[in-house]
Amino acid sequence: MADDEPIVVVRADPSWALEFRELGGRLRAALDHVAVRIDHVGSTSVPGLDAKPVLDVQVSVAGLEPDAPFRAPLERLGFVYHAPNSDRTQRLFREPPGTRRIHVHVRAAGSFDEQLNLLFRDYLRRHPEARDEYAKVKRDLAERFRQDREGYVRAKEPAVWALLVRAHDWSQRTGWSPGPTDA
User: Fold this and answer.
1) Residues with Cβ < 8 Å from 14, sequence gap 6 or more?
2) What is the CATH number of the domain that holds 93?
3) In angstroms, rounded to a whole number, what is the distance separating the alpha carbons of residues 65 and 106?
4) Total domain count for the chain?
5) Strand 55-61 to strand 102-108: parallel, antiparallel, or no bridges (unpaired)?
6) Count of CA atoms in the C-beta half-sphere (13 A) of 176
7) Spatial separation of the C-alpha atoms in residues 149 and 105, rounded to whole Å
8) Domain region containing 65
9) What percent of the chain has pLDDT over 90?
């Protein structure tokens, strides 16, 4: 799926978890102790959530600079460093050319963005009504913004932030904290 391909949200696929498990193992072997955490995040990490068929992986590291400790192993696995990246809180790597779409988001361990992604995932995993509400928004917007990736992302933001407010409230009531790393 190239950046100019239409946005398509597909039915949830149980094989996404298996694909991540295999990929997570390869990432753990390559990154070893450099990766504080390796987690399946994004829509494909939520069972039952319709999604664009993109595996999103969050690799948490002690710090983003210098990047050689994580960049070199990821590049040896064939991942392509995606620079420049306007999001200063992460370093983005994309799938090896000719393979299925994968985004590897390298973030600082304990950072707001790292925690936010884990909270959002865990909230959707534990709240099927929120998951289904989000799936409907994504399907509707994929139809409306089929050829406009930036428009799709921007149009999703209000729904995502509304869900994050609910996730935050839930985290405060339950004492949520991230569980163990996925890989």
Assistant:
1) 47
2) 3.30.460.10
3) 11
4) 1
5) parallel
6) 19
7) 18
8) 15-174
9) 93
Phi/psi for 152 (5° steps) reads -60, -50
| Cα 39-43-48 angle, rounded to 5 deg | 110
Q: Is residue 55 part of a domain?
A: yes
Q: Which two tokens stand for residue 46?
A: 């939520």
Please answer whether residues 33 and 118 qualify as being in contact, where contact means their C-beta atoms are separated by less than 8 angstroms: no
Q: What is the tens place of the pLDDT at every residue in 25-57?
A: 999 999 999 999 999 999 999 999 999 999 999
175: Cα within 13 Å, side-chain hemisphere: 0
Q: With bands split at pLDDT 50, 70 and 90, how would you rate the model's confidence at 3?
A: low
Structure tokens, 121:
């995932």
Residue 142 makes CB contacts below 8 A (sequence gap 6+) with 7, 8, 9, 52, 152
Cut 0.90: pTM above it: yes
With cut-offs at 50, 70 and 90, classify the pLDDT of residue 166: very high
The DSSP annotation for 80-108 comes to EE--S-S-TTEEEEEPPTTS--EEEEEEE
